Amino acid sequence: MKPVVVGVLALQGAFAKHIEMLLLLGVKALEVRKPEELAECDALIIPGGESTTIMKQMNFIEFTDPFRRFAEKKPVFGTCAGLILMSKEIISDKMQAFNLMDISVERNAFGRQVESFHVDLDLKLPSSKSHHFDAVFIRAPRIRSMGKEVKMLASFEGEPVLVQQGHHLGATFHPELTHDSAIHAYFLSLIRNFY
Fold it and tell me: Which of 39, 41, 141, 142 is deepest in the core (most CB within 10 A)?
């Protein structure tokens, strides 16, 4: 089996931290800035950042249609802004997301930058026992509703914060800003099982 290549959308946000995490796991990571670079990737991570800025840049470089085709066939992991872009609906926002996951989200609903926080989450990953994870929430979105096909892998105060639908994964927080690779390792297991 050929080595897995995970692309990280490198238009804005904390993409370098995702790449560091992938390299720690011994995976080849590729900074993706052009649509043609998707052809080299087995999966893609969309990092946190500012969702409207990321979408504008995706539109500017004509990335959206190639990305839609890519996401139909390959796994995608979105964190914070990345999760927003993967949603079915962004509440009170005109921006059209990619509808990769049957979730409705509200941007910045956990508070402003100064209200950022850490919390200990209990991850319920199918491939492992219960795992405690120090999650970092920065201007995080809230998942306000989710369809029957969406699995909740972690919650905070009863709300879903880590979700999976098929081969796609989404987090409202920033797993790349910790020293714990459990969530990235789980995404890699999705990729390997997918192929």
Answer: 141
